Amino acid sequence: MRSDVLNQSSGSYYDLNAGDKGVIELGTKKIQTFVGSLASITAGTTQYSDNDIMQYLGALDVSVPDGFHTPSKIVIEKVAFSCNTASGGTHVGNLQLSATANSAENGAVTTGTEIVGAGATYVNTGLNATEADLDFNAAGLTLVQSGVVVATSLINLYACTTTTLDGDFTAGRYTVQVEYSVL
Fold first, then answer.
1. Mean pLDDT, range 4-9, rounded to an integer
2. 99 DSSP β-pair partners
3. d(Cα 145, Cα 102) in Å, to the nearest integer?
């Protein structure tokens, strides 16, 4: 027997398509995917330093259904990072959230909070997660269950480097999926 939520003939059917915003949501639980490309970074002509922005990825959706209280916190439950194409040299980095959107590349994130990387502070989620930077030069998947809690004002997601970049890293392509709750 199938759940009414999964049965299209049921009045309780819930469509889990991402919709216009690219967000799968079930109440205050959300899954959002961002596609990253280093094709336009200027590391070949301008040196990047520790925690400089490589790319603004977009904003987390913090809307809640009617009848819910105004949320004040975001719990980052899981982050999946897939390096689809290696960047072309030794290159590690992190993901940060900020209240400021569209900050320029090759500069610091305005009041950034690291959610994945060596500078993040993971909450004990029952798994032995270790804070480590993401490898942008090794095709593969990194799954992090961080439990990081931030204010709902910190919705803008940035990919940042922790390696000094001063060469051609434009081959890098990656995907980031964030699973989070807005409470």
1. 52
2. none
3. 26
